[in-house]
Amino acid sequence: MKRRNFLGMALVTVPAILSAVDFRKTKPDTWTAHTVDDSIKKLYGDIKPTESGVTLKAPDVASNGGVIPVSVKSDIDAKTVGIFQDANPEATVAVYTVMDGQPVDYSIKIKMKKSGTITVIVEGKDGKFYSAKKTLEVALGGCEG
Question: Is the whole model's pTM more than 0.70, yes or no?
């Protein structure tokens, strides 16, 4: 099979498989909330997450606040994953829809203007919420590095 034909078939089938929620349209207030608690409430409602089942990794000290590596892993059968921080004016960083059967294993780079705490909420398909937090220091310069 020619490479162009193969790539064309792949592009046609991928959109039919994906069905992610656009949280910017369905939960717009989440993206303008200024505190982590308010962001979580606007996204998930009034929840009480259990601090277990989620592994959050980030450096203890970030030398460049403009590119802080963050990784999130969990074996929970998840519906969504939300990442929040309390160092910038808007607290929500990202919200992911987890497809059926997919593992929670994300790595991203975030910006933080100053030292603060990163919070992750995993919404399980069992209707429960799980969380992890990591406090880190941002070296002088913040996002400017």
Answer: yes
In sequence order, the 6+-apart residues with CB closer than 8 A to the CB of 122 are 53, 54, 72, 74, 76, 78, 80, 81, 104, 129, 130, 131
Planar angle of CA 44, 97, 77, nearest 5 degrees: 85
How many angstroms from the chain centroid is the CA of residue 20? 14
In order, the DSSP letters of 99-129 are: PTT--EEEEEEE--SSSEEEEEEEEETTS-E
Please check whether residue 21 is in contact with residue 79, taking contact to mean a CB–CB distance below 8 angstroms.
no
Phi and psi angles of residue 5, each rounded to the nearest 5 degrees, phi first: -65, -45
Q: Which pLDDT tens digit goes with each residue over 33-63?
A: 999 999 999 999 999 999 999 999 999 999 8
Q: Which CATH class is domain 20-144?
A: mainly beta
Q: Which residues contact 101 (CB under 8 A, 6 or more apart)?
A: none
